[in-house]
Specification:
Radius of gyration of chain A: 37 Å
Oligomer: heterodimer
Number of strands of chain A: 0
Structural class of chain A: mainly alpha
Mean pLDDT of chain B: 91
Largest interface: A-B, 35 and 46 residues
Shape of chain A: elongated
Number of domains of chain B: 1
Distance between the termini of chain B: 17 Å
Largest sheet of chain B: 6 strands, parallel
Strand content of chain B: 5-15%
Low-confidence stretches of chain A: 1-6
Distance between the termini of chain A: 89 Å
Largest sheet of chain A: none
Number of strands of chain B: 6
Number of helices of chain B: 8
Helix content of chain B: 40-55%
Radius of gyration of chain B: 17 Å
Structural class of chain B: alpha/beta
Strand content of chain A: under 5%
Strand order of the largest sheet of chain B: 3-2-4-1-5-6
Order of helices and strands of chain B: EHEHEHEHEHEHHH
């Protein structure tokens, strides 16, 4: 529709009109900054109004200090339930306390160590252990 | 040269989207600098995520002691300076307002946005009085339904007009294309119609809004004769 509410003419060239309008603005010629005392006065006036209106200085965001999610960092996000001997449970707790590990951490290290041992079946470690499922 | 500041003390009212659209449309015919005063850095993130060919420059100024300098530097470089403030009552935004030629307050017209718009407008008027310099304010209604406007919004608009607050005739319609700019990290003009609904309609909406802003700026500069001495804060 045109401005008068009728059907828009097919010969209207609104695009060039708006482009002309946009292009009619120009950057400001470089100007001298006002003297410091005048600037300070205006600055203080704005600050006073801002303060009474409840505008505050923002707390600065410290980059790189945000704590990432524990799950994302460790990948330990699965519950593992298992039956074991009570003395082994105590050993887990004791090792974790001693080294300040969480239990998931201990499990990871224990598995790494086990895989290393499995790579060497001739190790004396296996002399009193059975591969039959019961040790 | 004119400094257009998008100002609202509440977040999520459409400041950044409106600022982006205006900068993109004006940038097609003239030089534009966007001063990013929002610590969430939506423009910088858009760039980092692959945004390009936007036709305007982006500078960041988050701190209250750098914002005025940044705006001042941009005015001598670009024909338009668009300032995107953070949606909170912060001093950086407060200072940006004091050196603006036009303050655009965004609101979706609902009561919560309106309350904050009221707070923002009151602040601009107070600063205007204090500096004895007219800082024109316009309210831009954003995220408006394409059809069937609600009574709440119509009441809000009437309420503003009754209180002598100028509201832009054109509103930004709630369109998928506007959100997709930041989703696909592209410009409105380059949105793929296969991926986004009706980008052409969104473009037309943005265009009429940008034209109204430019006409408003023209009228303001014509009315402000002889040229007022702007206080640099």
């Amino acid at each position: 529709m045109n401005k008068a509410g009728g059907i828009r003419s097919a010969f209207d060239d609104d695009d060039s009109e708006s482009e002309e309008l946009f292009a009619s603005f120009a950057p400001q010629p470089a100007t001298e900054r006002p003297p410091a005392d005048k600037k300070d006065k205006a600055e203080k006036a704005v600050e006073r109004v801002a303060e009474t209106s409840g505008f505050r200085k923002r707390a600065k965001i410290k980059k790189g200090t945000m704590r990432r999610s524990q799950f994302y960092q460790t990948g330990r996000n699965t519950q593992i339930a298992m039956k074991g001997r009570s003395e082994d449970k105590e050993r887990i707790a004791a090792l974790c306390n001693k080294h300040e590990w969480v239990q998931g951490q201990l499990l990871q290290y224990a598995l790494d160590a086990l895989e290393e041992k499995l790579g060497d079946p001739s190790s004396p470690f296996w002399s009193d252990r059975s591969f039959e499922g019961v040790d | 040269m004119p400094v257009i500041t998008f100002f609202q003390t509440k977040g999520g009212t459409g400041k950044t989207t409106s600022a982006f659209l205006l900068a993109e449309l004006l940038g097609k015919s003239n030089s534009v600098t966007v001063v990013e005063a929002d610590q969430n850095e939506p423009f910088t993130e858009w760039l980092k995520a692959g945004g390009k060919d936007h036709g305007f420059e982006i500078v960041t100024a988050f701190e209250e002691d750098e914002i005025v300098q940044a705006i001042h530097a941009a005015t001598s470089k670009s024909a338009f300076v668009v300032v995107d403030c953070e949606g909170s009552a912060n001093l950086t935004a407060a200072r940006a307002v004091s050196v603006s030629d036009l303050v655009i307050v965004t609101s979706n017209g609902k009561p919560l946005d309106q309350r904050h718009a009221g707070k923002a407008i009151k602040y601009v008027r107070d600063v205007s009085r204090k500096l004895q310099r007219d800082i024109p304010i316009r309210v831009l209604l954003t995220m408006q339904p394409a059809v069937a406007r609600s009574r709440t919004i119509m009441q809000a608009e009437n309420d503003m007009r009754e209180h002598g607050i100028h509201v832009f005739q054109n509103q930004l319609i709630m369109r998928d294309a506007f959100a997709a700019i930041f989703g696909y990290c592209t410009t409105l003009f380059k949105l793929d119609p296969k991926k986004v609904n009706e980008p052409a309609k969104a473009y037309f909406n943005a265009k009429v809004y940008a034209v109204e802003v430019a006409k408003t700026l023209k009228k303001i500069s014509d009315d402000a004769a002889p040229e007022a001495n702007r206080e640099i804060v």
